[in-house]
Write a structure and sequence with these properties.
Chain lengths: 115, 118
């Protein structure tokens, strides 16, 4: 069974500091993709970044980067230079070969950026 | 603009009164799905569809129905809503993936429907 675990229900970070949000996954598939989404208080789900299981380099998108450690089955999101607008829920998700087009989500981490 | 449109944004209803939440996408995606989001539980899949006339149950299908008569539309139907179906609902779509293809197509979400059943 596919499983995504986010162990940090809530996190705080000082403005302009970096923060790491943890995500571990469980799959026996070789082909899979990992995604991070942001959900601000307004409710919409915003796609942030993607990492493929065969990608050798960690994904980066602006201030977002993904610390991908395949052997440990972790895909942590790193947000650099935090801004007040980064305060939101963050969800890790996975899609894999055995699940076809199914996406599985973690329970999320609530990030609060402190001025 | 590429988007997933779901309506209504907010809905308050009473137990047992049938309702439909509409979902439409303009990206020509084969794959569409419905999720519900509850505090502490993340997003749980209700139903999904791989293409027209092809639907399947997700993790929490009880009490819900769907149909996929057209590629762009994927309505969620609650025949007899109950208070435990009070939740935030999301429709989403994506390009399909397959063996040997990178799983890099993200889910595109609608803006959500906040349903309250009293």
């Amino acid at each position: 069974a596919q499983k995504i675990t986010q162990t940090q229900p809530g996190m705080f970070v000082q403005e302009k500091e970096a923060v790491t949000l943890d995500c571990t996954y469980d799959t026996s598939d070789q082909s899979y993709g990992l995604f991070w989404y942001k959900q601000p208080s307004s409710g919409e789900m915003i796609f942030l970044i993607y990492q493929g299981s065969y990608d050798e380099q960690n994904a980066t998108e602006g201030r977002y980067s993904l610390n991908f450690q395949k052997a440990r089955k972790s895909a942590n999101l790193v947000i650099s230079a935090s801004q007040l607008g980064d305060s939101a829920m963050y969800f890790c998700a996975m899609r894999s070969s055995s699940t076809g087009n199914q996406f599985y989500f973690g329970t999320g981490t609530s990030l609060t950026v402190i001025p | 603009e590429a988007q997933v449109t779901q309506n209504p944004r907010y809905l308050i209803t009473v137990t047992g009164k049938k309702l439909t939440v509409t979902c439409s996408q303009n990206m020509n995606h084969e794959y569409m799905s419905w999720y519900r989001q509850d505090p502490g539980l993340g997003l749980r899949q209700i139903y999904y569809s791989m293409n027209v006339e092809v639907t399947d149950k997700g993790d929490v299908p009880e009490g819900y129905k769907v149909s996929r008569k057209e590629k762009r539309n994927f309505p969620l139907i609650l025949e007899s809503p109950s208070p435990n179906q009070t939740s935030l609902y999301f429709c989403a779509s994506s390009s399909p993936q397959g063996p040997g293809i990178s799983y890099n197509s993200p889910l595109h979400f609608g803006n959500g429907t906040r349903l309250t059943v009293t």
